[in-house]
Amino acid sequence: MFNVVAAPVKLSDRFATQLVNGLLAIQPLAALAKHQARQMMINRAEKIGVPWRAQVAQLSQMSWQPVLEQVQSPNLHYPDYYLRSFHAYPEGNLSWQAAWEVEVAAKAVHAGIWPDAGALGDDKLRQSFQGVLNTCLPAPPQAIVDLGCSVGMSTFALQDAYPEAAITGVDLSPYFLAVAKQRSRGTARITWKHAAAEATGLGDRLFDLVVIFLVFHELPQAVTRQVLQEARRLLRPGGHVAIMDMNPDSPVYAQMRPYILTLLKSTEPYLDEYFSLDLVEALRQNGFPSPQVFVNSPRHRTVVAATG
Fold first, then answer.
1. How many whole angstroms separate alpha carbon 30 and alpha carbon 263?
2. What would the pLDDT profile of 241-295 be if each residue is shown by its tens digit?
3. What homologous superfamily is domain 14-306 in, according to CATH?
4. Is the pTM of this model over 0.70?
């Protein structure tokens, strides 16, 4: 699961929030908003030199079914929250189109985080997250699980940072995992697992580090709390969880124009729940007594916590 649109404004005015939600409840308006949001991202990518259409066309010509069969768990039950439309895709993350467009969309969305970063904005965001890890972790982790790993962009960054670590990437979309596996051929130390982040099926206390990168804004609050419980179960004593996501306290969001908010909310069904969640308190309630919060971009924060 990956953020493929820019982040929303945190509205203090309750009426404005209700108005936006009411407009999006009208199906023709919602469909128009999703179409406009998608076109905005494609045009942004092409303008900064990211070959969105060409890259997607190239991926679409590959033979994906054999790779899909290698990663997919055929009896996996998809929770209801995951079956909603995401990121202007009617099927959400359960489609090839969504999987093929994750990387180019990330570059388009994150191009505007820093002035003049352009297509390198996504790389800079991931580097800023790694900088936080370098500050917080007492030693390089030897076993890492990347929950909601999408097509593996965060997973590959972890592999580059910790080449000796055994890494597991977990995601609910078999299409995303197929793209990840195809790109990781020859990499023996990454394992891909088709499962929900809140119910991975992995064993207790297997990992030194749990990473959750741009996932929580796509989840209902109840599921976020379940993921935190799962992270606690997966970690060894003294292990760490690192969560990188949008920062609800960023002034960037408070200054965003309402019409932009309308476009963005049309592609992210759980944003209101995410922005009203006290993540630090949720961590404390789930066995992480002393979370630390780091602002790692004008729009993002990283929260790191060790097991109690």
1. 9
2. 999 999 999 998 878 776 566 666 667 889 889 999 999 999 999 999 999 999 9
3. Vaccinia Virus protein VP39 (3.40.50.150)
4. yes
